[in-house]
Amino acid sequence: MSRTALVTGSSSGIGRATAELLVARGYRVLGTSRDPGAQRLGGVEFLPLDLSDPASVEALAPVLGTVDVLVNNAGESQSAPLEDLPGDMLRRLFEVNVFGPVRLAQLALPGMRARGHGRVVMVGSMVASFPLAYRSAYVASKAAIKGFASAARHEFSPFGVWLTTVEPGAIATGISGRRTSFVAPDSPHRRDFETMLGALDRNERAGTPPERVAATIVKAVEDRRPRARYAVGSGAPAVFALRRLAPAAFVERATQRRHDLRR
């Protein structure tokens, strides 16, 4: 049976790789972009979407009612010391990373439930499981969408509709150049903050290709009973095993040290 998938943020990175793979597997693929007219990707029909604008989200309601698969990939990366984090940055981050994706899911789920089949994939981040200093807002936003998916999957699985979260680690998508960041000029955190950013950029440059994440997303879409979470990149199987077996304080220190922070 032909399925329709909507992939947000499909103009680059993980979203683009996912859209390409779904096209190759025979899906009708709808992509989103803030500038859909500028996008060219074979087999993908682009629609306008700005997750920071609730009206833009609501405008997709008619389309979302017909899709079989929703991949909530679009989002914003952000770094700032909590002490310095401006309120407007925090509000925008949650609008883009949480409120927008959750509303898209709300608009898609009734149609999926009525048809007896559907998949909603939230693209989260491994930082939700391994929190990193100076990324508290981003960590919280990714933990939030994982929480929505993990709880709501129990509401919809009896109808053949599954919600799941894919948690990438460090991925080589060029996102470092698009990350928003802020630190006060006189911040006592400036030195460690800049150290963390340098390590984050280094790890992402050497990270997993987005095509590998896309393959994991498609697996979550096509598994008969998708798991609550799929993790990919940054040695995910080993580090999650370590998280289960090692003392929490050890795992916390290891996470910070991977980003050149001595805690």
TrEMBL record:
It comes from the Bacteria. The keyword Oxidoreductase applies. It holds the Pfam family adh_short. Keywords: Oxidoreductase. GO terms for molecular function: oxidoreductase activity. GO terms for cellular component: membrane. Belongs to the short-chain dehydrogenases/reductases (SDR) family. PANTHER family: DEHYDROGENASE/REDUCTASE SDR FAMILY MEMBER 7B, DEHYDROGENASE_REDUCTASE SDR FAMILY MEMBER 7B. This is NAD(P)-dependent dehydrogenase (Short-subunit alcohol dehydrogenase family). It comes from Catenuloplanes atrovinosus. The lineage of its organism: Bacteria, Bacillati, Actinomycetota, Actinomycetes, Micromonosporales.
